[in-house]
Design goal:
Helix content is 31%, strand content 24%. The chain is an alpha/beta fold. Strands 1, 2, 3, 4, 5, 15, 16, 17 and 18 form a nine-stranded mixed β-sheet that branches. Strands 9, 10, 11, 12, 13 and 14 form a six-stranded mixed β-sheet that branches. Strands 6-7-8 form a three-stranded parallel β-sheet, sandwiched between helices.
Length: 399
């Protein structure tokens, strides 16, 4: 049993801040939250007290878009193609550990080769490897020669799409991932090209929803975004509104996103930050979407070109360009991210009965998002992780 004390606590809900706070954890669950004078362990129960002083406690962060199988180098596709399955599996485990060290306690992996994400998830759940809770989608469904074809799931009609989705779900996928548009990382593929029609996308949606799972659509192109929303996908990834002639925003589709509850993961990242003013037109569109009511969640596409797994916070900082406040961005990384992923009943906010996925940082992220890099504590399912290097420092313990 742990009793965590800190100067401040953010529950993950808008404006919900508690001063001189304490959280009591028993096993993998939160059993009490309140002011320090109000929270105590049951009489006689063994408890380890961790006093984090003036730190801020908040829910463990959720990364809605990672690729553990990419190495975040200058050419991650070539690296993946060269790796054997055994090499790639080890690389994925290493990347998962980096995410956890960065304060990410849940991550959604949106595309892996050879069902290796299944093996990584099982290893983490069994305690054989360190990493966040994983939601996995297995191989992304794409057209022959389409974006990410090298991950091994090329499908050109509704029958093959349904079969692939069923195979993924049978293997243990939590999500289905379909490539509605091309992408920049695949030779011969164009981001503004739409790869599937509405009926083909709907076939994948129906297979996922049939067994209570969700589906994410990789969609850079305006046509791919519009068709994905019409087909009923649960989240749009990237959502860059590209056409052959530049950006083209469809306000009616954004309104449909609100009506259907479709989330957007814009994959803002350190790579976006490097582009500077070049992404202003895209940010202007996201501002319009936000005003309409579209809900954004955090996920920097870690693993892709020069987007390291430890750079999660850089993506959050980019989202301020959408007109979001720091409080809204923290919510996009916690409560809204959990809701988008379908796990809000288990995590995403600090509430009694929820999974003890908790981090503590030195400072107040509502005032400065950068303090989310100053990790003091990472707890996942009630277990505290301390690393000799590259992780949070040891904290003072009392009994």
């Amino acid at each position: 049993m742990y009793l965590l004390k800190a100067g401040s606590l953010l529950t993950g809900r808008p404006g919900d801040v508690l001063k001189n706070a304490a959280v009591l954890v028993d096993g993998d669950k939160i059993i009490s939250i309140g002011r320090q004078e109000e929270v105590a362990a049951p009489l006689g129960a063994p408890v380890e007290i961790i006093d984090l002083k003036d730190a801020t406690i908040l829910p463990g962060m959720i990364d809605c878009h990672v690729h553990l199988g990419f190495d975040a180098g200058a050419d991650p596709v070539s690296r993946m193609k060269k790796d054997s399955d055994q090499q790639l599996l080890l690389r994925m485990g290493h990347h998962a550990r980096k995410l956890l060290q960065a304060g990410v306690t849940t991550a959604r992996d949106l595309g892996a080769r050879a069902y290796l994400d299944v093996a990584v998830k099982e290893a983490i759940e069994e305690g054989c490897a360190e990493g966040p809770h994983l939601l996995i989608s297995c191989r992304p469904i794409t057209i022959t020669g389409g974006h990410c074809w090298f991950m091994g799931c090329e499908c050109d009609d509704r029958v093959s799409i349904r079969k692939a989705a069923r195979e993924h779900l049978k293997a243990g996928a939590d999500w289905i991932k379909i490539m509605a548009s091309g992408g920049m990382m695949t030779k011969g593929s164009s981001s503004y090209f739409c790869q599937y029609d509405v009926d083909e996308l709907r076939a994948a949606v129906e297979e996922a929803h049939r067994v209570g799972k969700r589906i994410a659509s990789h969609a850079h192109s305006t046509e791919g975004i519009c068709k994905s929303v019409e087909a009923g996908v649960d989240s749009i990834e990237h959502c860059t509104w590209l056409t052959e002639n530049g950006y083209q925003f469809c306000e009616r589709t954004a309104e449909l996103m609100c009506e259907k509850g479709t989330y957007v993961c814009s994959t803002a990242s350190v790579a976006t930050k490097r582009l500077g003013s070049l992404v202003k037109p895209r940010h202007d569109i996201f501002r319009r979407m936000r005003k309409i009511g579209v809900k954004f969640v955090a996920g920097p596409d870690a693993g892709t070109d020069l987007v390291p797994f430890e750079a999660y916070v850089d993506g959050l900082e980019v989202m301020s360009g959408y007109g979001m406040t720091n409080g809204e961005i923290v919510e996009a990384a916690t409560r809204l991210a959990a809701d988008a992923c379908g796990i809000l009943d288990a995590t995403g906010t600090l509430d009694v009965g929820k999974r003890a996925d908790i981090i503590a940082v030195r400072g107040n992220p509502i005032e400065d998002l950068g303090v989310l890099r100053k990790i003091e504590l990472v707890m996942k399912s009630g277990r505290i992780f301390n690393w000799e290097s590259g992780g949070p420092p040891a904290v003072s313990h009392d009994r």
